[in-house]
Sequence to fold (454 residues):
Amino acid sequence: MVTTECSEKRYEFERGDGARTVVAEFNGGTISSDAGMVLLGETDAKMKVIGRLSECFHDGRNPAMTKHGLQQMLAQRIFGLALGYEDLNDHDRLRHDPLLAAMTGKQELDQPLAGKSTLNRLELSSGMIDRYHKIRYWRDSVDDLLVTLFLEAHPTPPEQIVLDIDTTDLPLHGKQEGRFFHGYYGHYCYLPLFIFCGDHVLCSRLRPSSVGPAVGSKREIERVVKAIRQRWPQVRITLRGDSGFCVDELMSWCEDNRVDFVFGMARNVKLVGLVADALTQAQQEFEKTGQPARVFVEFEHETVSGSWSRKRRVVAKAEHIDGKSNPRFVVTSLSKDEIEAKSLYEDTYCARGDMENRIKEQFVLFADRVSASTMRANQLRLYLSVMGYTLMNGFRRLALKATALASAQVGTIRLKLFKIGALIQVTVRKVWVRMASSFPNQELFSQALQQLRQ
Fold:
């Protein structure tokens, strides 16, 4: 048996059958494994995400004593997340990548970027300026920027849009501020609120999990709708969410402000009793065909407890599947004349499932890295992740239309187009990025860049 000899800097791999021994060393010099970041830099140059994000901060440092600018640090952190580097410790080596430095706008490419300690002080900045934390951010400004970026993505106002609202759990493993054990998820977590419109994220509000899904949702929806209507006064808006948002406060606000809604409803004995005949019909059809059967019915409904301020249209799906009944309910402000029951449920309400994919993409950009001690610091980390997603989504929208990756997930785009090995050569006037000749997606790379520059 041949043993593989490894030293601290050299690693040998025996291939067998007389093949040459493979020797690996980390001494290639100025080589980047993420040459595709030039596409991400081109996207930011067009959208100006990071520059405008930096305007949402106050930098109280003495410029004469400052080595790393605020915008440069934000770019370093957001590009790092987009490229798959979740931990600040990664920047101990990434800070020496001249291509990353060039993408952040750094002039002295022979000097390293900010290290993990400097980036950590940025993220842990509190609302108050002190000796060690002199940078702070304004939450309202970042919130406004997310909506502005969404509006800018539409050259002409759409006739109607659907806003999806939902929550997710961010597990906690320490003693973070706002830590609470959530019985449904079975662990300590935060419960952030997200609002999406298609692929675009319009709100990412970090919240403790001790509150219900709908708590604070009216305030966020009101803020988002107001900003949208200022730019698009005639647009028709429909709000869509699961049963956690089926509360009278939110529905009444929608009805009073020209916003339609479609919300799931938690089933109860009374609701199931109202669709008993439809459930029987579905069961009979299932027994006849052996296939899942659905019957749709609708009715005007008001709560017995009086928790609803008025009667509302409820659509029920009476389904029999796998030998058991599976009734589901939605409440809506849309009338029968606008949309019939079956289409309302199957085409409108069920389409909210795509938002689950958008939320999963936040995790690919490490939105769950909420390990700071304060909620304010963790909110900033969530913002950085969301801005990384906004940049990646902008790249997908602008550069990948009509390509094989037009609807690809963020992780796939990262793997297919950003993870490119390249030799980096810095001269007086240029930064040469000599990418691997064997890179299989060269045509796609070229097409994406051409579309970005249109």
Notes: Residues 375-399 form the longest helix (25 residues). Residues 100 and 371 are 25 Å apart (CA to CA). The first strand starts at residue 10 and ends at 13.
